[in-house]
Amino acid sequence: MQHLLNVGKLNNGRSRFLLTAILLISAAIIAVLTSVQPFGFLVIGGVLGIAIILLILAFPLIGFYFCFFLSFFIFDFVRFLNTDLPVVVVLDILSYLTFAGVLINKAIRKEPFWKNCNSPIVMMLIVGLCYYIFEFFNPNGGSAELYFLAIRRIVALLLFCYCAINLFKDYKAIKLFFIVTLCLAIIVGLYAFYQQWIGLPKYEF
Fold it and tell me: Would you give the DSSP letter of residue 63?
């Protein structure tokens, strides 16, 4: 009975998040139709950003797949925009939001933090993280900047792994993940054939 109550609370919370996100997205669409000024675009970006954050916090699986899709295409997107902005940081932000969404959902279900995480992969990532943290403060360890980048990468991998373990808890979820991965791999392979037979797009040069 208590489990059903927790599930009911979770679904109600998600529904409120989803309704809020839909309202914010609708407001952004209305703003697009009624305003073309720079300030209007800033408002639109802010509203859409808040909507995406609420969706990811309520449905962390959406955030996980959003990160997964971006990891496939983000560098091509950066070349297309021809920008030096740190667009890759968006992946880190999305991974942190997904992690926060997983924690919120676990807290609603009153699950322990380390449930389903007794994995050798998680332990090895933690060991690697501790090693790089020690080396970062080691005066004879080399470049602190390189160790900082390594720490950031391992933290992102650790959060991604933690989210995957908590989100893919049944056969259906794992099967969907492999189907999505296969579809993305096919798209990437077809694009490689395009590059080989037709040539690189202009923005690739």
Answer: H
Here the tokens at position 131 are 């090693």
pLDDT one-digit tens code per residue, 144-168? 788 888 888 888 888 888 899 889 9
Taking CA atoms, 86 is separated from 40, 81, 143, in Å, by 24, 12, 21
- CB-CB neighbours of 167 under 10 Å: 20
Residue range 49-83, pLDDT digits in tens: 778 888 888 889 989 998 888 888 888 777 777 77
- Per the listing, tokens 């492999």 go with 178
- Structure-token match 């070349």, residue found: 79
Name the token pair of 186.
């096919």
Tell me the two tokens of residue 40: 């209007």
CA 85 to chain centre: 19
Q: Give CA separation, 101 vs 58, 172, 197, in Å.
A: 6, 21, 43
The angle formed by the CA atoms of residues 78, 83 and 87, to the nearest 5 degrees, is 55
Q: In this structure, how many other beta carbons lie within 10 angstroms of the beta carbon of residue 76?
A: 14
Q: Name the DSSP class of 171.
A: H
Phi, psi angles (nearest 5°) of residue 77: -65, -40
* Closest CA relative to residue 102, chosen from 159, 174, 48: 159
pTM for this model (two decimals): 0.73
